[in-house]
Amino acid sequence: TSTVGAVDGDGDGVPDLSDCSPGDASVWAVPGEATTLVFPNATNPSLLQWSPPASPGGALVAYDLLRSATSGGFSSATCVASGIATTTATDSAIPGAVFYYLVRSENACGGNLGTRSDGTPRIAGACP
């Protein structure tokens, strides 16, 4: 008799068939959406802050901060910061009266910009 069980080759607690990187215990899934993007300091309008994803998908999450002049125009957005490890960034080149920001959470499994109000995934260009 034999027992068939789920194999977890890297010992991260996620079965290999569900693990995006079954050979790396530090990452197992695309991270969830970063939330609560705010300008926390009224006297410093260049500072932005957000909350990390509830499901990090790995030991480390990096972030890209994107800026656009239109709410739906993130395919050609400006990359303000790329691959940062903290949940704050500054945008010293504030472009004008109206601008929009998105934060991409990412790890070795991929990136996540969250979803629109209708449930479709947000799309944006890559940061260098």
Structure description:
This protein has 128 residues and is mainly beta. The chain is built from no helices and 7 strands. The chain has strands at 35-38, 47-51, 62-68, 78-84, 88-90, 100-107, 110-112. A 4-stranded antiparallel sheet has the order 4-3-6-7, with no helix packed on it. It is elongated.
Termini separation: 54 Å
* Low-confidence regions: none
Q: Could you give a short account of the major beta sheet? A: 4 strands, antiparallel
Chain-averaged pLDDT: 90
The rounded Rg comes to 18 Å
> Overall 3D geometry?
elongated
How many helices?
0
User: What structural class do helix, strand and pairing data support?
Assistant: mainly beta
Spatial sequence of strands, sheet with the most strands: 4-3-6-7
Amount of helix: under 10%
Approximately what portion of the residues adopt beta-strand conformation? 25-35%
In total, the number of strands is 7
- Helix-strand pattern: EEEEEEE
Question: How would you summarize this macromolecular structure in one to three sentences?
Answer:
The protein has no helices and 7 strands. It is mainly beta and 128 residues long.
